[in-house]
Amino acid sequence: MMNRYDLGLHNAGEAKLKYLDADYQVIAQGDFVRCAVTGAPIRLEDLRYWSVERQEPYANAEAALKRYVETRAKTDG
Known about the structure:
alpha+beta
């Protein structure tokens, strides 16, 4: 039996997704994507945060906010 910390992602394939407003479209099959901020694998069934504009996934709300702040600083400066 697998637990949350033994995800078995070392054998799983990385998916390629197109991020839409309230959903995503699978471009290439896989079990996970990598967080654009932390690099951590995110199982597709756990994926809740992404940017349509930047077309990148985030592991959690904190990572999404961090990327938002980083990109706002670049456009405001």
